[in-house]
Amino acid sequence: MSGLALPIFLAIAAGVSIVVQQVLNSNLRASLNSAAWSGFVSYLVGVACMALLALALRDPLPSAATAARIPWWAWSGGLFGAIFIGLSILLVPQLGAATFLALLVTGQMLASVAFDHFGWLGLAQRPIDATRLIGVALLIAGVVLIRR
């Protein structure tokens, strides 16, 4: 377990950062009076941070040949990120951070169980079993309790 302490801590920190991001983006939306511009600013700052990280890690720029070999759907992650950011900017003020994130995690769990089961987008197949179904059911029960 000690070898997993840092990864577990970092995963929890990532979860905290999602809450902070959503609340900050919602506040920015109220200040700018625009969900679209709030999302744009969020992505602009994110792009700048990732560029700095690539420079700090001295990652080489991928070649055009490498980029050409990547399947078309692999480039669509930003689209789904924009959907997430846009919906969170609109929904966090309506639902509250706890309910929004509980529903978000529920959606993530339902999708991840399906993606694992069918091996979609190149994942190794991991069949749905009773334990996973119980976990998803408990998560949905948690959403109901948080929303009350």
Automatic annotation (TrEMBL):
It holds the Pfam family DMT_YdcZ. The lineage of its organism: Bacteria, Pseudomonadati, Pseudomonadota, Alphaproteobacteria, Acetobacterales. The chain crosses the membrane at residues 37-58, 70-91, 97-118, 130-146. The keyword Transmembrane helix applies. InterPro entries: YdcZ. PANTHER family: INNER MEMBRANE PROTEIN YDCZ. This is DMT family transporter. Keywords: Membrane, Transmembrane, Transmembrane helix.
